[in-house]
Amino acid sequence: TRLWLMDKDRSTGLVDPASLRQVAFDEELYECGVSINREYDTPFCRIHYSSLTTPTQWLDMDMRDMSRKMLIKEEAVLNFDRSLYVCKRVYATAPDKTQIPMSIVHRKDLYDEEEEQEEGDTTTPPAPKPTMLYGYGSYGICIDPGFHKLILPYLDRGMIYCIAHVRGGGEMGRYWYEEQGKYLNKRNTFQDFISCAEHLVDNGFTTPSTLAAEGRSAGGLLMGNVVNWRPDLFQAIVAGVPFVDLMNTMCDPTIPLTTGEWEEWGNPNTDKFFDYMLSYSPYDNVRAQPYPNILITAGLYDPRVAYWEPAKWASKLRTHMTNADENQVLCKFDLESGHFSASDRYKYLREKAFDQAFVLSKLGLAETPKK
């Protein structure tokens, strides 16, 4: 997310397009936005700002001279030292030559001195490291490179954390979503994520045996396609409340959210949409092949992704996977929560700890983190 300004003539109410300018910040990767300012008559615009290495800050920007005043320097995060971490942007190339941005963060001491990169090389690491690749890619929602304290257990155990800004999201504008990532172009989302994973492997960031991936809800649809299309690329997958039984859900208008969702995926009562949706419905495309370790979570009272979707998917995966003696498909149900996990913050943290313990155990990293 970026902030842009344009001058407006108060007498005519017209804006001057030539005055368009971006509000600049020091870091390359960040997220920012306009926050609530309850003073009506004020020259100050309140802004929130964070990055993958900077906890959330709140600032007042004086619209008269663009100067900024810090209100809250940083959200308090226990035992966090931002100087220990570094983030950067890399790009993967999709089969249609589209450049897919990725945001990467890791500890500065991830690499030993003898592994240090050559001077000027900011994109290619010297040795593969365990990596978590996160994606969503639907509804035009931006997955910004803001601060997420829940990824610190990964980073402090020597992992790289990467966000794939795939088509279907809104990171590169409405075109990234409306024209490239929905309806009959939805498969771009899944191919983009695979291209990102391939880039990380081909350029030495990680290996398939040390690469994990995560997505929730519509991001679970992404995970469902990833494991069907390229199960060999990943060691572990976390699919949270995954939307995986696309055809049965979208063909049943009695389900409360179904008809509204036709605006995202298409109306299956139309042949062209039916056939296209069927080609990427995760449940319908499970087949006999090896699958990575998969953790599936669900909530009994989820109004968006009914609990039977992940249950059916888990059962079908277990039936068809040809390496069940090596890898696991775990299905964890919460009998009290809905789509957004537990409302009890401590229970929510325990759920996150479970997810991360699964990933760390499969990547062989379940030891004490760095301080």
TrEMBL record:
One short Pfam name that applies is Peptidase_S9
What this protein catalyses is: Hydrolysis of Pro-|-Xaa >> Ala-|-Xaa in oligopeptides
Among SUPFAM superfamilies, the record links this protein to: alpha/beta-Hydrolases
- Mention one GO molecular function: serine-type endopeptidase activity
According to the entry, every stretch annotated as the Peptidase S9 prolyl oligopeptidase catalytic domain falls at 152-364
What EC number(s) would the UniProt record show?
3.4.21.-
Q: Which InterPro entries match?
A: AB_hydrolase_fold, Peptidase_S9_cat, Peptidase_S9A, Serine_Peptidase_S9A
Which keywords accompany this UniProt record? Hydrolase, Protease, Serine protease
- Give the matching PANTHER family: PROLYL ENDOPEPTIDASE-LIKE, PROTEASE FAMILY S9A OLIGOPEPTIDASE
What role does this protein play?
Serine peptidase whose precise substrate specificity remains unclear. Does not cleave peptides after a arginine or lysine residue. Regulates trans-Golgi network morphology and sorting by regulating the membrane binding of the AP-1 complex. May play a role in the regulation of synaptic vesicle exocytosis.
Q: Which family does it belong to?
A: Belongs to the peptidase S9A family.
* Name used for this protein in its record: Prolyl endopeptidase
Species assigned in the record = Octactis speculum
